[in-house]
């Protein structure tokens, strides 16, 4: 690893952006921005374990934080840096952007204008904050000795607040040395990998821990309030009213908030998109409820229990519910009190899909029912969510790396992603922008297929191979919203199908869908018009244009997809189709490596007739040029492109496209959207090393702006590939560049923006974690393997399989290696294993204290272990492998 770092320092030629240009506070910022030149200390800091990223009030780092804390497919509720909830995009408005707006910019963007919309990065240059369509909050009433105070839990009321950015559970600490208590908030919605239903509850849980640090007993009351803004957009003062009603169940008590038609006929009103209800509750049956909290400053009178069980007010009047829990705490002791904010807005509709509604309505009749379910199962839901958080961050990999590669899956808990009553997953590209679960964008998103594989299997079967597949095998790239395939989306979908097969416990998914999978793969082969194995049919792609010619990134992606088709055909014993796929892939590889490689990187060979009269990447250095090989690493495939040429291409990307400060480049190349600003690092989509006058063929096309942008999803894809190819420092640097662009001092760390907020492609970040672990898995074959790219001597990281997840560790001492798979959740069936070891002499495999008969072989620096029979381990058990 030392040589890798030295080589990086010698060859990178970086000019690091300083603290001043980044406008970051000096305190607490890593050595990433500490000097203008990379040195050994800075390089080492990329690899260090470090500490959890903690944002502080004292450094002005809380104002933009918006961590999604609702269930997946349930709308967007943000947890703010000070613990208050905000945004509240749960009313099925289907708006574009978390805050639809247009902001002025100092340069032309895409179409020549100087206005930036949500889909152009409005929230990147003008981050949203304090979007509060309803009033919500919590406060602490503290009584000790002769002192009694009420302190709201907000940024203005505490000397210091810290926010630990550990998605899916955040920890917020409130500090005031003058008070005899330590207060911690744990906020989350249940999030359990492999359990998409319990991870899709429309609820936010806020669990307060209060410790008495003084010498006398204290009485602590936690007060929560929630304004009734149900029917936020469609309630009319003359026809509607809002109602707060006390509700309770076993072990919980709260207030349900709703709206109704005056006179009682809700038949029309109930069809509106924002019709529904909310519930504020404490998971404590001794809680005090108030249906109509008085306005004005907080006093003890605000939350005294009232006799009334219901309060009704007109639409123009403020109606707030309040719930309070009270605890007496002895010195040195602590208590925990938990609140739930739930919601129920069933009328989700899209123009192309009528009458679908929200998935959570299958289980619940209203918000109170959601709270009842959460209370009934709270011990399990909270324990398993916390177990996942602890498992994920139980790693030797850097804290910041674990945060950045995982947190983008929070996109599923925003209005980018939805789940219909039928169970169907449906999504925009980014919040409210570009509908139809677009294949050429979502195929980059590696996280979902690894964390919630059932959602992806269903989408492949129900949509891509069902609703969207045409008689010729082509897959409409936006489902019902489109009438044509996109070639990169088609290839990426076949690769996703192979991943979904691997993330299954058996072969039933592959067997059931094989005829359609075969057609989808054959469609790719058929787009090779001249029979040279290189796709050349002009078709739509993710850069929103129809490109002609033979294009390296599309050709390579198609080769990888057809190779995946070959491997699936072999499993299906479809020998003829496997042979046809192999012929195509082998021919395509040979021709791509000879015709599209210019001696340094891979290019776009123009159409022989049209030449460069149409848009394309041509001789430029394109960010996705070896994307096919990158995808292959995600599914444990052998090489689909020559290693030496692929590494040369990646080094060219590092040489020409990565910039520690993009400012000078974008000043000379205007027109792109502002996804990276002067003083920030990133990888440009396309550069022009040959310095051609018109490198992209045409002079005036709005899509040309894309080529001058830093889009994080593409950057994550490249970082994952570099990690797999041994360019570890470059991979970490690129990932860190994205991470620092989204530092909380500047913008929301949880919102990677491309075409609108919470853009799906950014979930490619999980792929970098996959390649950092060298993880490969094939559930139906019972195969698992690891080849860590860093910290191999003492490695530890989480893993997720088709039916279980846990922690993998390896310890290397001299010629002896110890590998341990410890399962934390579910189960895991294994028959073959693969680790790095050049010349093993002996192996021993034990499970739960039992030695298992096994054989082994060694090839290409790896040991392949075959168990005599499959072994199934359960949560709490371990599989131990000793190699010498």
From TrEMBL:
Residues 66-380 form the Glycosyl-hydrolase family 116 N-terminal domain. Residues 488-764 form the Glycosyl-hydrolase family 116 catalytic region domain. Coiled coil: none annotated. InterPro entries: 6-hairpin_glycosidase_sf (IPR008928), 6hp_glycosidase-like_sf (IPR012341), GH116_catalytic (IPR006775), GH116_N (IPR024462), Non-lysos_glucosylceramidase (IPR052566). GO terms for biological process: carbohydrate metabolic process. One of its GO terms (molecular function) is hydrolase activity, hydrolyzing O-glycosyl compounds. PANTHER family: BILE ACID BETA-GLUCOSIDASE-RELATED, NON-LYSOSOMAL GLUCOSYLCERAMIDASE. This is Uncharacterized protein.
């Amino acid at each position: 690893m030392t040589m890798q770092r030295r080589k990086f320092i010698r060859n990178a030629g970086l000019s690091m952006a300083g603290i001043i240009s980044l406008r970051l506070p000096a305190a607490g910022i890593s050595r990433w921005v500490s000097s203008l030149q990379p040195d050994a200390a800075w390089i080492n800091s990329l690899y260090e374990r470090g500490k959890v990223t903690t944002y502080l009030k004292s450094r002005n780092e809380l104002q933009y934080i918006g961590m999604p804390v609702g269930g997946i497919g349930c709308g967007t509720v943000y947890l703010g840096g000070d613990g208050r909830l905000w945004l509240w995009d749960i009313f099925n408005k289907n708006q574009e952007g978390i805050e639809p707006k247009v902001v002025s910019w100092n340069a032309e963007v895409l179409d020549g204008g100087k206005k930036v919309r949500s889909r152009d990065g409005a929230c990147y240059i003008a981050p949203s904050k304090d979007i509060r369509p309803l009033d919500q909050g919590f406060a602490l009433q503290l009584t000790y000795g002769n002192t009694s105070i009420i302190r709201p839990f907000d940024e203005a009321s505490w000397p210091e607040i810290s926010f630990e950015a550990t998605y899916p559970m955040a920890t917020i600490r409130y500090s005031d040395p003058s008070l005899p208590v330590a207060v911690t908030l744990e906020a989350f919605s249940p999030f359990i990998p492999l359990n998409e239903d319990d991870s899709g509850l429309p609820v936010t849980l806020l669990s307060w821990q209060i410790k008495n640090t003084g010498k006398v007993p204290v009485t602590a009351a936690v007060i929560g309030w929630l304004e009734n803004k149900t029917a936020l957009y469609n309630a009319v003062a003359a026809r509607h009213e809002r109602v707060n009603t006390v509700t309770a169940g076993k072990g919980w008590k709260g207030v349900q908030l709703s709206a109704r038609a005056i006179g009682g006929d809700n038949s029309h009103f109930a069809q509106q998109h924002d019709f529904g209800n909310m519930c504020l509750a404490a998971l404590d049956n001794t809680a005090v409820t108030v249906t109509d909290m008085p306005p004005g400053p907080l006093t003890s009178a605000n939350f005294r229990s009232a006799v009334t069980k219901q309060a009704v007010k007109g639409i123009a009047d403020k109606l707030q519910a309040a719930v309070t829990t009270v605890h007496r705490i002895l010195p040195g002791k602590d208590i925990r009190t938990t609140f739930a904010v739930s919601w129920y807005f069933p009328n989700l509709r899209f123009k192309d899909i009528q009458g679908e509604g929200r998935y959570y309505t299958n289980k619940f009749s209203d918000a109170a029912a959601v709270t009842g379910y959460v209370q009934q199962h709270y011990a399990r839901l909270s324990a398993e969510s916390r177990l996942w958080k602890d498992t994920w961050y139980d790693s030797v990999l850097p804290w910041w790396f674990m945060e950045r590669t995982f947190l983008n899956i929070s996109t599923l808990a925003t209005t980018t992603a939805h789940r219909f009553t039928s169970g169907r997953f449906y999504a925009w590209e980014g919040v409210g922008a570009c509908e139809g679960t677009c294949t050429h964008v979502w195929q980059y998103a590696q996280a979902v297929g690894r964390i919630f594989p059932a959602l992806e299997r269903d989408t492949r079967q129900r949509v891509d191979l069902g609703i969207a597949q045409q008689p010729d095998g082509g897959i409409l790239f936006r489902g019902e919203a489109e009438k044509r395939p996109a070639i990169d989306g088609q290839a990426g979908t076949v690769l996703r199908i192979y991943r979904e097969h691997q993330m299954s416990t058996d072969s039933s998914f592959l067997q059931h869908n094989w005829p359609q999978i075969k057609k989808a793969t054959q469609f790719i082969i058929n787009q090779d018009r001249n029979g040279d194995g290189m796709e050349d049919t002009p078709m739509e792609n993710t850069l929103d244009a129809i490109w002609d010619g033979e294009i390296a990134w599309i050709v390579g992606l198609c080769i990888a997809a057809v190779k995946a088709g070959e491997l699936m055909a072999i499993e299906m014993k479809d020998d003829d189709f496997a042979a046809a796929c192999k012929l195509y892939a082998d021919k395509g590889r040979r021709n791509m490596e000879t015709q599209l490689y210019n001696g340094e990187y891979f290019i776009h060979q123009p159409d022989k007739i049209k030449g460069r009269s149409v848009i394309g990447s041509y001789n430029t250095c394109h960010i996705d040029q070896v994307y096919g090989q990158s995808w292959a690493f995600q599914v444990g495939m052998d090489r689909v492109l020559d290693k030496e040429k692929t590494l040369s291409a990646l080094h060219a990307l590092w040489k020409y496209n990565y910039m520690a400060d993009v400012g000078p480049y974008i000043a000379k190349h205007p027109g792109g959207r502002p996804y990276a600003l002067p003083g920030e690092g990133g990888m440009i989509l396309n550069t022009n090393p040959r310095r051609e006058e018109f490198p992209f063929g045409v002079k005036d096309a709005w899509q040309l702006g894309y080529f001058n942008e830093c889009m994080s999803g593409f950057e994550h894809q490249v970082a994952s590939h570099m990690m797999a190819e041994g360019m570890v420092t470059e991979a970490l640097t690129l990932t860190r560049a994205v991470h620092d662009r989204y530092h909380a001092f500047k913008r929301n760390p949880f919102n990677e923006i491309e075409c609108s907020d919470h853009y799906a492609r950014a979930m490619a970040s999980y792929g970098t974690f996959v390649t950092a672990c060298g993880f490969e898995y094939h559930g139906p074959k019972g195969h698992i393997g690891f080849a860590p790219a860093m910290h191999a001597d003492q490695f530890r990281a989480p893993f997720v399989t088709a039916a279980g997840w846990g922690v993998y560790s390896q310890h290397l001492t001299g010629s002896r290696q110890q590998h341990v798979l410890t399962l934390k959740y579910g189960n895991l069936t294994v028959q073959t294993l693969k680790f790095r070891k050049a010349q093993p002499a002996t192996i021993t495999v034990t499970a739960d204290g039992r030695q298992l008969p096994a054989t082994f072989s060694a090839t290409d620096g790896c040991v392949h272990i075959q168990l005599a029979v499959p072994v199934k381990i359960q949560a709490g058990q371990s599989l131990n492998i000793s190699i010498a």
